[in-house]
Amino acid sequence: MKYAILLIISLNAFTVKSQTSEDSIKTVINRMFTAMKNGDAAMLKSCFADSAILQTVLSSKEGKISVETEPLAEFADFVGKQEKGVADEQIVFETLKTDGQLALAWAPYKFYYKGKFSHCGIDSFQLVKINGEWKIQYLIDTRRKTGCE
Fold it and tell me: Nearest-CA neighbor of 99 among 25, 14, 9?
């Protein structure tokens, strides 16, 4: 009986450990979106690595593709000026991959501003586990107004 209990505890610990990375990755990403929704710049910054890069793939009306880089400080400043509940980005975790201290998350999203649909696209996150905690190192997204269903 004692060995059966130890085996069950060991199996439960293994199961929890195997779920922890994915859950932790989702938690930090969801915390970033909670910070956006709450207009909380400090919480937002806490989700990112110190050297994080934020980029957006843009397409002009003429079809020219460009990549725009936004410093984390500017993004956090913008978020901090938003009223609570104004910015609502809703994502679906489609793909999560990990290899040691590196993780990838691919997440289609729809963005609503003041309750109205604004745009949709894909968020692609690269995360790094720093001091035992997942941080967003790189975030690049696409933005479009059509094909969002």
Answer: 25
